[in-house]
Amino acid sequence: MSFFNQPIQIGNLTLKNRVFLAPLAGVSDIPFRRICQELGAGLTYVEMLSATAIAYNNKRTFEMMARHASENVLGVQITGPTAAQVAHAISVLDKQGFETIDINMGCPVRKVVTAGCGSGILKDPERISETVKLARSATSRPLSAKFRLGYTRENINVVNTVERVLAENVDMFTIHGRTRSESYSTPCDLSGIKLAMHTALANSKPVIKVGNGDVFDLSSALKMQQETACDAIMVSRGALGNPWIFKEILSAKKVQPEFSEWLDVVFRHLDYQEEHFGKTKLAAILARKHLLWYSKGFPASKSLRDVLNRVEDLNDARALLKNYAANTPKDFIRYAGSNTDLSSDYDPKYEMDRKLDRGVGDEGMEQSV
User: Fold this and answer.
1) What is this structure's pTM?
2) Which domains can be identified in the chain, with CATH numbers?
3) 230 is a catalytic site residue
4) According to the model, what pLDDT value does residue 360 have?
5) Which of the following is catalytic: 107, 117, 188, 230?
6) Dihedral angle sign, alpha carbons of residues 151, 157, 158, 160
7) How far apart (Å, rounded) are the C-alpha atoms in residues 190 and 272?
8) Which residues sit in the known binding site?
């Protein structure tokens, strides 16, 4: 059994393996989570929620908390402008039945940070301590925190952040190996993660250490684990259009699905999309980004993406894919004969996070800005 395919204990919660899906804002809805779970993800999360939106009983935010009957284990992530608001939100989330709750102190999106949330918390070390302290008092469920190396490269404070969250008794923490000011073009700093991980080794209480950043395949997952001594890894952008990454890491061998398998998974994702969102224009619009990510790496796929990016009906998307499939060999391997891979300059999350300024449910953030 590979290292990643071993169970792991977070507080009183036992997870089947050590490969987690990050709570991706604007992405981690039920259909996407189900696909990732089926391909092996040991832990998935509802996308990041706003504590302010919860305080306002925002309808959209509570809809985002929905879970499918097949989701036996599901986490939730929260961020907020004050420690008290985060704690209040966690007391609400505690009653929703989530198996684990995470505090986000790493989101880089401008409007999230401007509202004093996400990685904006890192600028105030005392607030880090207060937030986790009040959060810990608000729930007995496994509690974790996710953060970056610091706000800027000149203000790296990740060791101090680890010391603070450990002092307030988190069960797990996740470190993304960049600062808030660094874009995805800056390589993940594994040495920075390692330094902080070693800080946790001196802690007398058991805590799970998770590495995050630039995990796109088995080799990068192994590099993260071996160079940082993390106990588990969290996959973010690497799962976009490639949920097979979980299968690859867990099986410890390269996984490149043939076209027929790829098509089956994409159609299943569309079925889940329709089941959850209905036969609506919204369902098709929300599926577009996934279809763009899925269709990367096949011959003449740019023209396919151009039309998929305009679909307003899921049946139209299915018809386009069936037509494309008729002209693609069933045994064609994705990215065959191409130097392009999933860790290339193609960066959809950067587009969403930094250029389009997508973050926590917009309705809630508008009230917290």
Assistant:
1) 0.92
2) 3-255 (3.20.20.70), 259-334 (1.10.1200)
3) no
4) 52
5) 107
6) negative
7) 36
8) 77, 146, 176, 236-237
